[in-house]
Amino acid sequence: MAEHTVRGEGYPTAGGATTGYVSKSHSIAIGSSLTVSSADVASSAVTSMNTLRRGGGAMWMKPMRPDFCRATAAGRSAATSAPIACSVVSDLKLHTTTSVDTRTPVDSGRTFGPSWQPYRLDALQLRYQMWRASRPGTHSRILASMSTIGEPLRIGIQLPEVERVVRWPELLTIVRAAEESGFDSIWVGDHLLYRNDGRPERGPHECWATLAALAAVTTRVEIGPLVACASFHPPAVLAKQAAAVHEISGGRLMFGLGAGWNKAEYEAFGLPYEKRISRFEEAFAIIAPLVRGERVTYSGEYFSVEDAVLLPTPLSPIPLMIGSNGPRMLSITLRDVASWNTWYDSYGNSPERLAALNREISAAAVTAGRDPATLRRSACVLVRTDPTSTERPLGAELPPVQGDAAEIVQQLATFAAAGADEIIVIANPINERSVREIGALLPSLRAASA
What we know:
The protein is an alpha/beta fold. It is built from 11 helices and 20 strands. It has helices at about 125-135, 170-180, 205-215, 235-250, 265-270, 275-290, 325-335, 350-365, 405-415, 430-440, 440-450, and strands spanning about 5-10, 25-30, 35, 50-55, 55-60, 70-75, 75-80, 85, 100-105, 155-160, 185-190, 220-225, 230, 255-260, 295-300, 305-310, 320-325, 340, 375-385, 420-430. Helix 6 packs parallel to helix 7 (about 325-335) and helix 8 (about 350-365) runs parallel beside helix 9. The longest helix is centred in the last third of the chain and has 17 residues, at about 350-365.
């Protein structure tokens, strides 16, 4: 096993003094865990940070819990979250030595406590962050040295949108049920209004306000928009909204993005509908570097910003997810996103069609200059737990996953076999009971997909 040296260093505070530091050096093998205990630190009231470094640049690990510290990466200061413990995954094979620097600046306002528990690093996220840091102009490329070992299947749930009117007390009950049941992620649709589609006029709660509320009442799950429409807000403002939710959640936001499609809501709210992909391309050119912690100056046909920056600096770089199968959208985004998502009707809710689509996404990643192994594949899957439910339209062209517990597990496992790293359940119906029923199947589903 390759060894990685862990070094402790002093850290200058705003006042210029060097504060507490890890007083011992450690060596850890890939696949093992590193824990920095209070005995290793000059003060027990500390925060800390773990980064993987190669060639002098920082590559962020997924945090265990949020705290604040600063690091210098590629000549630029950036804030990140601070785990006190981490695991090093076994699917990283680097041609050169990689060091893990654990820095622990003293913060008198924060102390160790029983809530500090080791966090298992998300291997795919780490592969993505290392790929990002290895891009031309940052560091030498290391794509060829990364393996394609898969991750455990992630299972998420989308909250009610317009299936029926759901007020906050019921929504909160569903959210708590999802987190208690072991779902990995909770998602919120981003729409303003539905009409003129043969069904009654209806509209959901505003996406970003809802996500902020979820961030405050959850502690473990990843949260995100499924997906945020880049047309609804100026791009830098949208990045600012995402940074606030990322902060409130302690770094648990997956920032899903799309170009929008529902013309009725554009017209109702006075938003420009034409040239949506061109507008998205400019918006993405602003959003992507902002959520990485960069300053952005950009002048385009539709959007312009002058030295835009997100302050306070986000806890960590905010990962992006693209919700599109369109070739042009993929060419715009695949070099910069952590994840790709597809809605169930875009592949007929069929594992076979998902596998074919997944191959197309891999090819698009290669064309975009992206290692496909570093891209999370996320698929929404329609699951019907009540055969009498009509909350979502059903038809022969969109057969839902349904049946008894064993049948649902078996069917969902086929989507993982088709290439899904993450299944986002679109439940029919969507209520506390269905969430808990599906939640009870998660251990069996993860075992079947291992």
